[in-house]
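Progress narrative, Year 2. Work on LysR family transcriptional regulator from Streptomyces lasiicapitis advanced from sequence curation to structure prediction during this period.
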Amino acid sequence: MDLDLRKLRYFVAVAEHRHFGRAAAQLYIAQPVLSRQIRAFEQELQCALLVRTTRSVELTAAGKQLYEEAQGILAAVAAAVRRVHDVERSVQRLVVAFSPGLHVADALRAFSSRHPDVETDVVPARWWEQAAPLRDGRAQVGYLRRPFDDSGLHTIPIGREPRVACMPAAHPLVCRQELTSADLDGERMLDAPTRRTSSLEEKFELIASGHGIALVPLSVARSYPRPDLALLPVTDAPDVQRCLAVLADRREKLLRDFLEIATATLRTS
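Result:
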């Protein structure tokens, strides 16, 4: 079957608002029309996406999966339309995907100073599918953190960083200066694949509310400071590697120039 992008956008609005009235207002359509479109979408997909009550709307398991998939689908469609417009306007554009906590601004500034005619943009890479923006065309380059599926990619190591244990500020281990992996034995860990969260904000909220501990890269932890969370070094936890990544078959001069500039810039930042 063909996926109806209009209905998919309607579904995403309902999934984000968890309310048909607010979603309809955002979409500038009548609520009964939105309800009919969502029911038609469920019939087309032959599965229930939402659980409706008089007061709330919740996602089914299938609905949660579709909502996750929809982020990449709609972003890829928007990127394709933008590329078409860029070609029509003879615009050169470089888009860089970046993993949470990694900063690519210095490299973009250095690149723009040498290529002022090239428009640059960024797109976040979700931590559980970091290479997706490269594979679906949303970005030409990624500044990513391993592990990720690097099949078909050319990667350039940039550096390494430690991982720290992130836990509630009231946790008994907070009194320690540092930890080892053995100190975490028996603790409930929120690292994938134990429990995959849809965002880092969700993960940190779960940690702060006492649902467990997570090992996170230091740059991620520093990007989301909270007074109700504590960070402790784990001396024997393996470091995380940062790298630049591009599709292996892409050899445009513009990309080569950016990789050269970004490698020099990011390795010293």
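The beta strands are 50-52, 57-59, 92-98, 118-124, 141-145, 153-161, 163-168, 214-217, 229-233, 240-247. The chain has nine helices and ten strands.
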